[in-house]
Design goal:
This protein is an alpha/beta fold. The protein is built from 9 helices and 13 strands. The strands form 4 sheets. The chain has a 7-stranded parallel β-sheet with strand order 3-2-1-4-5-6-11, sandwiched between helices. Strand 1, helix 1 (38-49) and strand 2 form a beta-alpha-beta unit. The structure holds nicotinamide-adenine-dinucleotide and uridine-5'-diphosphate (2 copies).
């Protein structure tokens, strides 16, 4: 083994970025924490498809084996049931750190656990990255901007976040995770990347996760009213999952630390989203208004000029193109659920 790119498994740890041009990309060993979840499982598919070895670490809090079952039996794929709050020893080249519940319903279910996942989980993965010299990517969130006073949000905006509210376990947790990431970068020389992800949707979202797109799509398929919280005039920007996964990989492979906003700048009110869901699934669907949750951000829209310029990345799939791509998956799972109940 001459230490250069080879078809064989590398014996020593090295950096993907150091592979000499022209020899071809060496196979990397990559950890994806939270890889049994919605975004993680799509990322795992992309990494395995391009020929890398992938280890998923997941405690199955919101993730499901079904999201990865089509990869079972692939010798380049390994699934470890493990909670990132506990230390772990592994040898890899890159760490994509996604482990953390993302839906408000899930992260509020056990807020202390959410904080521990964000702080202790991120600390452990950074400690791991430091020990083995791996590159580390944090999936942060647009929630670090809180209820933003700047619109659209640029990466330079510091946010407007309630430190003692119901959402704080998640948004303050992610802010601390960003701080830890930058401190390991500055203090220990760890190669880090930070993505701030805006609302993302697609196949494999949990049916019962309470997020607006999964709620509306499941409700329309089940012939239930679409539940609009508050007056429905609050806005969000919805990104299709394959666009996000392309962005995360582009960021990991780039030479830029970030943070980078990753989202689709198309901005919709919840009432407009309900209309698009009606057009896509069932034009006879009705709307039911419900009280809104505490500290709900009034608007959210990414400024993605930084990612466009430095990563040459931007989303390709509009909401009207993306929504139909998740309907088949949702229909199948809802049908299976009904069959399970003997309906
Ligand atoms: P998800 O809930 O589907 O996936 C999270 C995964 O992490 C699940 O598989 C879960 O079981 C696992 N997990 C949670 N706590 C863990 C722990 N302590 N140890 C090990 N595994 C654990 O959510 P997602 O939408 O796929 O989100 C993935 C990441 O992207 C999260 O970090 C989330 O904060 C971030 N993000 C997502 C969105 C979005 O709209 N989907 C927006 C902003 C940020
Ligand atoms: N850690 C880990 N795997 C490793 C190396 C470290 O899980 O391969 C954990 C370790 O248990 C610690 C955290 O990462 O809780 C931070 O590690 P670091 O070495 O930075 O700090 P220290 O152990 O000195 O507190
Ligand atoms: N929302 C809604 N109906 C639902 C679920 C959510 O109107 O059934 C609203 C919610 O109040 C918020 C927006 O949709 O204003 C996005 O909520 P989600 O939980 O999807 O993500 P967030 O951006 O708040 O993390």
């Amino acid at each position: 083994h001459n230490g250069q790119a080879s078809a064989h498994y590398p014996r020593t740890l090295g950096k993907v970025g150091r592979v000499p041009a022209g020899i071809g990309r060496r196979r990397s060993r990559i950890v994806v924490t939270g890889g049994a979840g919605f975004v993680g499982s799509h990322l795992v598919d992309k990494l395995l498809d391009r020929g890398d070895d992938v280890i998923v670490i997941d405690n199955f809090f919101t993730g499901r084996k079904e999201n990865l079952v089509h990869r079972f039996g692939d010798p380049r794929f390994e699934l470890i049931r493990h909670d990132v709050v506990e230390p772990i020893l592994l040898e890899v080249d890159q760490i994509y750190h996604l482990a953390c519940p993302a839906s408000p319903v899930h992260y509020k279910y056990n807020p202390v656990k959410t904080i521990k996942t964000n702080v202790m989980g991120t600390l452990n993965m950074l400690g791991l990255a430091k020990r083995i010299g791996a590159r580390f990517l944090l999936t942060s969130t647009s929630e670090v901007y809180g209820d933003p006073l700047e619109h659209p949000q640029k990466e330079t905006y510091w946010g407007n976040v309630n430190p003692i509210g119901e959402r704080s376990c998640y948004d303050e947790g992610k802010r601390t995770a960003e701080t830890l990431t930058m401190d390991y970068h500055r203090g220990a020389g760890v190669e880090v990347r930070i993505a701030r992800i805006f609302n993302t949707y697609g196949p494999r979202m949990c049916l019962d996760d309470g997020r607006v797109v999964s709620n509306f799509v499941a409700q329309a398929i089940r012939k239930e009213p679409l539940t609009v919280y508050g007056d429905g005039k609050q806005t969000r920007s919805f990104q299709y999952v394959s666009d996000l996964v392309d962005g995360l990989v582009a960021l990991m492979e780039s030479e830029h630390v970030g943070p980078f906003n990753m989202g689709n700048p198309g901005e919709f009110t919840m009432l407009e989203l309900a209309e698009v869901v009606k057009e896509t699934i069932d034009s006879s669907a009705t709307i039911e208004f419900r009280p809104n949750t505490a500290d709900d951000p009034h608007m959210r829209k990414p400024d993605i000029s930084k990612a466009k310029e430095l990563l040459n990345w931007e989303p390709k799939i509009s909401l009207r193109e993306g929504l139909p791509r998740m309907v088949g998956d949702f229909r199948n799972r809802i049908l299976n659920e009904d069959e399970g109940k003997g309906l």
